[in-house]
Amino acid sequence: MAHEPRHDQGHEAGRTSPPLLRWYEPGQGVLDGRTPGPTLLWLHGGGFFRGSLDIPEAHEVATTLAGLGLRVATAGYRLAPPPGLGWARSFVVPGRERFPAALDDVAAALQDVLARSPHGVVLGGASAGACLAAAATLRALDEGVRPVGAVFAYGFFHGVHPRARDPRQRSRRHRRVTHAPWALDAMNRGYAGSRRVLGDRLAFPGGHDVGLFPRTLVVNAEHDNMRASGDLFASELAASGVDVDHHIIAGTRHAFLNRPGLGEFTTTTSLIADWCLSTRIQDPRS
User: Fold this and answer.
1) Helices (H), strands (E): how many in the chain?
2) Sign of the CA dihedral 178, 183, 184, 188?
3) Contact by Cβ (8 Å): 215, 113
């Protein structure tokens, strides 16, 4: 069984209240003599403008993975303004910051986690956290640091969301409205802050050169308007020669990792743990 998470305010990221790191260590006897694997640096989702380290997609996922023998660190990051508030957003939600604030926080967290992870770091996240993890992977590669892997759960990676051609792959019920393409594009604009940033590879890596990415696991929900971006990004990685494992979890919808009672939650966390623990260990700075 995994230990309770250890809280650690370990990086500044240019702000007075640094994002929080939480460490989840495998409990006694979990590894059963196996060589420890890499650390997974895991980022929650929430459309860039909501979410925290306390939601199931962060805490329950990390706790479950640690119970399966994987060392996990979850990192907070500065949130963007909610989409659609226009000029009033600074009064309604003060203290919010757009790109690149969240990426700066994740990059700082990665440096902390690298310093404490002799077997390397896998960068991963869910939904908007997957986009941030992909962007942080690109930034790390630019800086001469090579994560040993990447894990993306129902992520989106393109400044303008591609549309699913097959209606069976689209969101259902109320999410046909809340996750409508126009709403998703408004969410991206709220994070980016300008049309120029929508095309920035460190804001939305989709459609850019990803040939240096490490081994990557992509897990997408079956019925999800964001699946089109996740599927396309997996194809872009594979076309660039990256070793990609791409899975569609049958019967699921977006953010299903926020529902730990689902069998699909167990299936996916087991898949992530097994994949990370099988990742070949190498020098993360090579």
Assistant:
1) 9, 8
2) negative
3) no
Q: What's 146's domain CATH number?
A: 3.40.50.1820
In a domain, 157, yes or no: yes
Beta-bridge partners for 107 = none
What is the spatial distance between Cα 195 and Cα 233, in angstroms, rounded to a whole number? 21
Residue 286 lies in a domain: no
Q: Is residue 284 part of a domain?
A: no
E-state strands within 9-101: 21-24, 39-43, 71-75
pLDDT in tens, 170-209: 455 555 556 678 788 999 999 999 999 999 999 999 999 9
- Torsion over CA: 122, 39, 17, 50 (sign): positive
Which tens digit of pLDDT belongs to each residue from 142-158? 999 999 999 999 999 99
SS3 of 29, please?
coil
**CA separation for the pair 160, 272 (Å, rounded):** 28
DSSP string covering 147-213, please?
-SEEEEES----SSPPPPSSGGGS--TTHHHHT-HHHHHHHHHHHH-SHHHHT-TTT--TTS--TT-
Q: Is the residue at 282 inside a domain? A: no
Is the CB of residue 120 less than 8 Å from the CB of residue 282?
yes
Q: Residue 17's domain spans which residues?
A: 6-277
pTM of the model: 0.90
Please give the Cα distance from 281 to 40 (Å, whole number).
13
pLDDT digits (tens, 9 = 90+) for 107-142: 999 999 999 999 999 999 999 999 999 999 999 999
Report how many domains make up the chain.
Answer: 1
Measuring CA to CA, which residue among 25, 111, 113 is closest to residue 66? 25
Count the Cβ atoms, other than its own, within 10 Å of residue 43.
30
End-to-end CA distance of the chain: 33
